[in-house]
Amino acid sequence: MKPFDYIRPESLEYAAQQQQRDGGRFIAGGTNLLDLMKLEVETPERLFDLNRMPMAQIEPEGEGLRIGALVSNNACAADPRVRRDYPVLSRAILAGATFQLRNRATTAGNLCQRTRCYYFYNTAMPCNKREPGTGCSALNGINRIHAILGASDQCIATYPGDMAVALYALDATVEILQASGGRRHVPVRDFHRLPGDEPEKDNVLEPGDVITGVVLPPPPQGVQLYRKVRERSSYAFALVSVAAVVRMDGERIAEASLAFGALAHKPWHDPRIETLLAGEVPSDAVFDKAADLLLEGAEDYGHNGYKIPLARRTLKEVLRNATGGGQ
Amino acid sequence: MPQTNRSLTINGDTYEFSGDPRTSLLDFLRRDCGLTGTKKGCDHGQCGSCTVIVNGQRINSCLSLAVMHDGDAITTIEGLGTPDDLSPLQAAFVKHDAYQCGYCTPGQICSAQAMLEEAKAGWPSFVSDDLDGEVKLTREEISERMSGNICRCAAYSNIVEAILETMEAGE
Q1: Which terminus of chain A, N or C, has less C-beta within 10 A?
Q2: What percent of chain B lies above the pLDDT cut of 70?
Q3: Taking Cα atoms as reference points, which of A126, A105, A108, A104 lies closest to residue A117?
Q4: Are B61 and B38 in contact, with CB atoms under 8 Å apart?
């Protein structure tokens, strides 16, 4: 690990200003960042330890709920209000990592977790995300876990997490403190980026931006489901995952909010699918049309083509379970 | 590099940390405190052999910096029992032969100790049918909740038995 200065800031505002001026990383749980620092994939010159900042509360916000940036993944998943009103979020969190990791991993840190692309982790190999301009080793390499949607010729990495997929389905909002002292609110669906020509940028955070919390809208009506397909039944990243919030009106689908994990550089959300499903009587034919939209433009890079039929089948299974229709 | 003086309570005793901020909690425990019961396996949060209990919660001590634990209360395997006075879980691991080489065992026991408390607090897991129901620690639940602790000798079935027996004795 490269040497760094360890700074425990007096206030969040101070941390934001110093980080904007001098660079460095904010650290909370550190479960991803310290791992990457040991491998020297991440080499920050300073760490701002935010753990003592007052951001570990879950509290009502309007009719919704505000999850503080430092709330651990386990504390969020176990919170009675989250379990009752946002079960898709509890289920998604519990589908990821282990109890030990989730005790340390935080809400903000989890949003910012980095890809598990093996070439990103391997400092002996070119990687545009780690070292811009060096090339993408995955494009013509082993790319079994890589993106089928929204990739570029610079990067085909995926966002690996589960929690954020549920937040996309719930249409949550990320609350950010800026170095200027101002605050901005970014819809979570706009928080992560596609790789384009700047794959080194995972999300829209600017220097000096600190995530202070995530705001959940009022609890949605209907069924909430999270389905994760992976190679082991525990402690493995998703190959495909689907988060769904579906409300029925009699025999018809009134509203369906869907997000997909492990398919792209960000959790995938396609409003066209929701427009298509609204008002339909659920059937496999309708579900197939939804999958056609999802997978329009899906690309097989050599080893990840299996994700295309897998995403279709997983989406159909989730829609069958959520609506009681189809098959 | 600025010196950083921090104070940690480990198994009830106070330890000062003033070293390189790169020092993991795991290395601090083993190298500086002489508490070598906690084991280094993968050093990347994948195997669980470094599991310790911090402020009542189990974590991977390899993925945490000692400097970040100023003021924290830490329990390691040495704090749970001694050879002459085994904790209930330690005794159950011996009785059920819940290991072969023993390298992962301190992490397994620290993890299981905290896991029993999590279940009492009603924390659900991935395999819980009902998010709101009372947690019943079945074999399936225990396996899921212990999936962060790998045993390369594959003593899993005996580990589960040891935990089940400890849990039932505690009820």
Answers
A1: C
A2: 98
A3: A126
A4: yes
Domain extent, residue A33, equals 5-47
- CATH number for position A253: 3.30.390.50
| CB-CB under 8 Å, B68 with A31 | no
Say if residue B28 is in the same domain as residue B51: yes
Number of independent structural domains in chain B: 2
- Euclidean distance between CA atoms B128 and B83, whole angstroms: 36
Within a domain: residue A307? yes
From residue A2, alpha-carbon distances to A5, B16, B61 in Å are 10, 23, 19
CA distance A289 to chain B (A): 30
**Which residues of chain B have a CB within 8 Å of the CB of A47?**
21
Task: List chain A residues with pLDDT less than 50.
Answer: none
Q: Which residues of B touch A (CB under 8 A)?
A: 1-2, 4, 20-22, 24, 43-45, 48, 51, 57-60, 63-65, 67-68, 111, 114-115, 118, 121-126, 128, 131-132, 143-145, 147-148
In Å, how far are A37, A151, A326, B40 from A1, measured between CA atoms? 6, 31, 53, 17
Q: pLDDT tens digit string along A98-117?
A: 999 999 999 999 999 999 99
Contacts of residues A134-138 at CB distance under 8 Å and 24 or more positions apart, as own/partner, are A136/A199, A138/A301
- Decide if A83 and B124 are in contact by the 8 Å CB cutoff: yes
A100·B68 Cβ contact <8 A: no
Which residues of chain B does A77 touch, with a Cβ-Cβ cutoff of 8 Å?
Answer: 123-124
> B interface mutation test: which of A99, A113, A227, A241 has the most B CBs within 10 A?
A99
The H or E element that residue A87 is part of is helix A87-94
Q: What is the pLDDT of residue B1?
A: 45
Range of the domain at B109: 88-170
